[in-house]
Structure formats: structure tokens, C-alpha cells
Amino acid sequence: MDKKGSFKLIFLVMILSIVIAGLWNSIPAIKNSVHAILDPSAGKLLNWNVTYGMLIAVFIITLISTLVQKYGTNQAEIRRLKKEQKDINERAKQLKDNPEKMMEVQKELMPLTGELMKHSMRPLIFTAVPFVLFFRWFADYFAIMPDFKFFGFFSWFWFYLLSAIIISMILRKFLKVE
Questions:
Q1: pTM of the prediction?
Q2: DSSP string, 85-128
Q3: Residue 90: exposed, middle, or buried by beta-carbon count in 10 A (0-12, 13-18, 19+)?
Q4: In angstroms, rounded to a whole number, what is the distance separating the alpha carbons of residues 8 and 147?
């Protein structure tokens, strides 16, 4: 499979993810299979210590996502496209007094943005379904303790999201991922 990506395949995987999430409670085999895998692994981690277990789970999920991003995309091409975007933006800024020429220069950005998006979204093909399954499992896990809040005020979702953003920034910098 070529590393440029395809919006069709990404769209298909996104639809599949939504369908799986929607069928979670309707088709017990989906839910039961995921629970059979995650209860003895991630569940054991969360049962040991909810906060540290969740941080470890978030770290592992984010590490896998970051590695898929790094090795599932053409990093050199993404760097080149970002540099080209930056150069075009600089040229556009210099032409702020000439709106017509500025618009011409900014038109060059559209194809670059689409190309960059194709490259950057390619890892979704590999991570979208497992990500949705993990989220549904987390929702089930934390549903049995609805009053639990991380640090007294974060729901599991917000704790996951903020932790993942911070960990992702660190990992992306450390692993040099665009």
C-alpha cells in the first residue's frame, strides 16, 4: 500500500468505526470479545490503581498511535509539504498590501493542504477501529463507578484526552514525528 493515503479508505474505516460503536450494545459478540481481551489486561491495570493505570493505558495507546503515525506515513514528504506551506504563507504575508496577489499565492495552499491531509490521516486506517473499541470499553469500565472523577473533577474522557495530548506532544518531539 502506497504511503500517500486515500480519502476513500479513510472514509470507509471511519464509517466502520461508527458502525461498530453503534452496534456495541446491539451485538453482544463485539462487546464480549473486546471485554475478553481488555478486562484481563487494561482492566487489571485500572483495578490496580485507577489513576496510574489510566496513565499507563493512555501512554501505551498514545505510543502505539505515534509509532503508527511515524512509520505509517512518509515523514520526509510531510516535512517537505509543511515547509512548502510555511514558505507560501510567508509569501502571502509579504503581499498583505496587495490582496489580489495574496489570493493567488494562497490558492497554491489548497492542493498542498489536501495532500498533507491525505498523508497525515493515513494512520487512521490502522488505528480508528481499535481506538473506538478502547473508548467503548473505557465507557463500560467507568459506567460502574459513575461518581469517580480523576483528581476530583475530570471524567475518564477528559482525563484521557488531556493526558493523551500531553503524552503525544512529548512522544512526537522525542520520536521526531511530524
A1: 0.82
A2: HHHHHHHHHHTTT-HHHHHHHHHTHHHHHHHHHHHHHTTHHHHH
A3: exposed
A4: 41
Residues in CB range of 54: below 8 A, 6 or more apart: 46, 150, 156, 159, 160, 163
Strand partners, 150: 154
Q: What is the pLDDT along the chain (178 residues), one digit of tens a residue?
A: 444 445 788 888 889 989 998 999 999 999 999 999 999 999 999 999 999 999 999 999 999 999 999 998 889 998 999 899 888 888 888 887 888 888 888 888 888 888 888 888 888 788 888 999 999 999 999 999 888 999 989 999 999 999 999 999 999 999 999 8
Residue keyed to cell 512509520:
71
In the block, which residue shows the cell 504511503?
Answer: 3
